[in-house]
Here is the input.
Amino acid sequence: MSRWGMVIDLARCTACGGCMAACHQENNLTAVGPEQTELGRGHHWMRMLPEKTGSEQETELRYLPHMCQQCDNPPCVRVCPVHATYLGEEGIVGQVYARCIGCRYCEAACPFNAKVFTWYEPEWPGEMKKKANPDVSLRSKGVVEKCTFCHHRILSARDEARAAGRELRDGDVTTACAESCPAKAIVFGDLDDPASRASELAHGSRAFRLLEDLGTEPKVYYLAEDE
Here is the structure.
């Protein structure tokens, strides 16, 4: 059984935002506009978090790609009263939209602020709804949603491998954000496969995880810009 994870090389990332755009298109996210964004209701499964480094005299601003960290010990799962959020066998924290009652306990419990709430019924101007990804459901208002590591792609790749009479191989499946990154800063793969590129990078000397002291055991690793 695979344990899917992601490695993001901060030395390669240029903060171009291509991963955010790809995530929006792939997962049928809608744009909420500037007014709702100012109210803290921005609708992104993936964001660029600004971080200031250096001294007061020489401040440098860099960005950190940020999405659901797919924790192995997710606090969001423990607080959901209807089990709408769950930890799957392959380590992906999923959302059952039909079961979600919109209480937002999971959103409050997440230390990474990685979940978003659909405040209004999504609007699809013009012909945009016809261009929605048929492999991903269209969510209604009142539910919490988040990054799923493009789980539909994993299912599709596994079906293709099964039809070919073989197991999944490293590189058979990737996420929309990783595929769209022009700098190849994002690597996706099976962390339990020691031969996978993601596993090799995650165990390297530059690798770190966000808020490790909390014990949530994220499966998203970042590579520091310097050794």
In short: The two ends are 32 Å apart (CA to CA). The mean pLDDT is 92. Residues 171 and 189 are 7 Å apart (CA to CA).
